[in-house]
Amino acid sequence: MQPPAGSQVSRVPAQRTPPEQLVPPSGTPAPARPPGRLRTIVTVVAGVLGLLLVGGGITAFVLYDRATRPDRSAPDVVVDNYLRAFLVDRNDIKADQFTCAGASAELKELHTLRDDLLARERRFSTTLSVSWGRLDLQEQGGSTRVQVDLTISAYIDGVSQSDRQPWLFDVTQASGEWRVCGGMSVT
């Protein structure tokens, strides 16, 4: 039934419920919820773990690099490391890290000593060990030399034997690192 003409009721527009307040029909899915707290927490944790892994990898690389870098900080240190690599460990590759480029001719006498030690080990079926004591620095003008007494020891037929030989090594510094450039026995 229509209200009479001119009545107040007909001039008021009909009021309707806003669409966002309507209950959805049972066949339509509920609207998607915005990302929740759980997704934010997972994202933050994943980001922090990623940063920790990258930082840990960089730290491991730096520590490994420092631990494996040869120490060439001083003349006596480089001679000590060279002798250990060449005569004790008998590792030419490692010993080359402590020498000047092309220094093999100047170190030929030390190569001859090591070859002689190896020949004696085979001949007497024993092991010869090389040790040394104090390394003395000698600076003359622009050159630096390191003097050291090498002690060669063996245990042959139940008897301990040793021989002491004085050696002199020439060292030079380039780019802040010392290198062995020559060596000779002193008689």
Task: Identify the notable features of this structure and list them briefly.
five-stranded antiparallel beta sheet; 187 residues; single chain; 26% strand; alpha+beta
Explained architecture:
With 187 residues, this protein is α+β, with helices and mostly antiparallel strands. Strands 1, 2, 3, 4 and 5 form a five-stranded antiparallel sheet that branches. The longest helix is centred in the first third of the chain and has 32 residues. The model has no long low-confidence stretch (mean pLDDT 86). It has four helices and five strands, in the order ααααβββββ.
Question: Which secondary structure elements does this structure contain, and how are they paired or packed?
Answer:
Blueprint: H1 37-68, H2 75-88, H3 92-96, H4 108-124, E1 129-132, E2 136-140, E3 143-156, E4 159-174, E5 177-185
Antiparallel strand pairs: 1-3, 2-3, 3-4, 4-5
Summary of the model, kept short:
By secondary structure, the chain is α+β, with helices and mostly antiparallel strands. It has helices spanning about 35-70, 75-90, 90-95, 110-125; strands at about 130, 135-140, 145-155, 160-175, 175-185.
Radius of gyration: 42 Å
What can be said about the biggest beta sheet? Answer: 5 strands, antiparallel
The gross shape turns out to be rod-shaped
Total beta strand runs: 5
* Succession of helices and strands: HHHHEEEEE
Note poorly predicted spans.
Answer: none
Distance between the termini: 135 Å
Mean pLDDT: 86
Number of helices: 4
Can you give the helix content as a percent range? 25-40%
Specify the structural class.
alpha+beta
Q: Into which percentage range does the β-strand content fall?
A: 25-35%
